[in-house]
């Protein structure tokens, strides 16, 4: 019991202590809360007291930031002023001494202008801009003058020798040729600066390569300043005179239709040959070189580049084309056909080069003028072709061919046709100019056949001038044979065909047969037995085996005398006639001999005894068959009357 009471007292004490501790803790808590509340009030008061100070501090910091920004902006502006002063100093010195530095100064000045243009809120911006723009205008003006002087100092006419050196070796003029007027050799002094092209042409250096980048930089600045028109004028004026003078030195002349009409054919023909050479040199060497110069100076400015090139070459092209136009418009004549074809040929050859060199919209007029000349040359050549065909048929020259040989017209026409076949590809191209899709080979064959037919028609007319029909046939035989032989030996055979050749060979044979009948029918009648019997009497001698049976000696003698007289007349006359072709001459003699000699031998054998038994038989039987054969060998030799016999 005592134990339990003691325990209870202990628990009560512990509980009492715990209550006391809790009360103290509550008191402390209340005190802490009170203290914290007091702190909060004081902090609020402090914050209220410090707010004006904070606002002033922020404003001061903001002001410092603004001052820093202003100072930095001022530094930038001052730097721009400094750049402007430096650029001005370099620009005032001019571009001649140090072009690169001058161009850099212009770039800086442009940058300066852009800066002040975008910062116009500064009080002095407008004044600075005015000054900078004025300075830039002066700088560009000096650049323009520098471009002009630099271009002019390196723009010199090209000597002919330098142009010739750029040609393939096969085209270079030989010593003393017309294209090399001074007669000197062509040297290779400039070869180091010329590159070989695929066709064997060398690239002509018109302006040194080291100068072209400088001219490009100057041109670029002028373009940026909007001075394209000034560039166009400077380049055109400077380079056009150089190109024209280069062509003049080469020998190019600006000729009118009237000038051409006054020229002797030999002079004109030589000038046309030179013109063809000049066109090739101008397009493939001179203008191609100028195009490369333009491409480099105006690189990046395509429209301006083409305008400058067109501007500097138009005068030179016009000078070259004027001669071609004068020829195309001049009075047509047959001998001009081949030079017209030569001129047309060179224009066709240069077609692709002209398209490439004179590329671009600005060169349209130049391209059209060159292609227009090509068309006119083709038109004139075709019309000349037609004129020739008509002229052949209507040729009324009274040139007499007394010996029946080949007429000059025949040889002229045949040579003309043979020359035409040297231009087969050109003629085919020419026909295509006007008749697209047509078979050009058949066209050429048709034209050639018409010319041949026109010639035959004319020869038929000329053959009627002869009073002796035999000479008429001989003349026609000679001329048609000449046509056939010439065709067989030329390319015309492939075009006209074997049928044409065979048909005309038969015509030759027909004329040969007609000649024989006309020339020899009468004399062969003398060797006929018909009419040798006489009912009026007279001495008659029966021959052996009936030879000469019933023939009158007097009639036989007369027949021999007539034969001798006619043969001598034929010999005298036909030994003056001509068959110029050896083979035809021999075959014609043989054809006559094959008819005449057997008939003569037979006549002499049959009726000779009647004469030989009388007085002076040699007076009647003057010739042996061998004598006749020998004399036939003198026929068709074209001998003069007083030329001695062989």
Describe it.
It contains 20 helices and no strands. With 646 residues, the protein is mostly helical. The chain has four domains: 15-119 and 126-154, no CATH class; 160-167 and 203-389, Exocyst complex component Exo70 (Monooxygenase); 390-520, no CATH class; 522-531 and 551-633, Up-down Bundle (Monooxygenase). α12 (364-394) crosses α14. The radius of gyration is 56 Å and the shape is elongated. The model is unreliable at 175-194 and 541-546 (pLDDT under 50).
Write a brief caption for the model.
The chain is an all-alpha fold. It has helices at 2-93, 99-117, 125-153, 160-165, 212-224, 228-250, 257-262, 265-297, 302-329, 336-349, 351-357, 364-394, 408-420, 424-434, 440-463, 469-488, 492-526, 553-574, 582-612, 625-632. It is built from 20 helices and no strands.
